[in-house]
Amino acid sequence: MTTTPTFVQGDTGPSLLATLHDQTDTTIPLNLSEATEVRFQMRKADDKRYTVNALASIVNAATGRVRYAWGPNDLAVPGDYEVQFEVTFVDGMVQTTATPNLITVRRQ
Questions:
Q1: Tens digit of pLDDT for each residue in 26-50?
Q2: Which listed site, 44, 46, 91, 98, has its alpha carbon 20 to 30 Å from 84?
Q3: What is the spatial distance between Cα 105 and Cα 3, in angstroms, rounded to a whole number?
Q4: What's the pTM?
Q5: Domain 6-106 has CATH 2.60.40.3350
Q6: Which residues lie below 8 Å from residue 86, measured CB to CB, with a gap of 6+?
Q7: How many CA atoms lie within 13 A of 60 on its CB side?
Q8: 74-98: per-residue pLDDT in tens?
């Protein structure tokens, strides 16, 4: 059983750390050495519009490790959110994480 990460309304820390995995074998980290950008995307679980669609940082390209530093309004509205990462590679290929993850923003 995995626990849904919970953040507090209005906070800007801690940053969100994630390891991205290959879609064909989720035990293999996604090599980001050829990535030109990684975007963090977040939306309410019942909405199709992203409330956050911003650049993330690559922490370790070989191991697929990324970090997203929360913006001042990213966690402004309490609720349940789906989050995912979208990777753009030098050849123009775009790959989005296979399954969105869930996070909760609780009231202050």
A1: 889 999 999 999 999 999 988 999 9
A2: 91
A3: 14
A4: 0.91
A5: yes
A6: 38, 39, 41, 94, 95, 96, 97
A7: 10
A8: 999 999 999 999 999 999 999 998 7
Burial of 48 (0-12, 13-18, 19+ CB in 10 A): exposed
Place of tokens 């530093």: 69
Cα–Cα distance for residue pair 77/105, rounded to 1 Å: 7
Hey, what are 81's tokens? 């959110």
What are the residue boundaries of the structural domains of the chain, listed by start? Answer: 6-106
How far is 86 from 71, CA to CA, in rounded Å? 18
SS3 108: coil
Identify which of 58, 88, 59, 68 has the alpha carbon closest to the alpha carbon of residue 7. Answer: 68
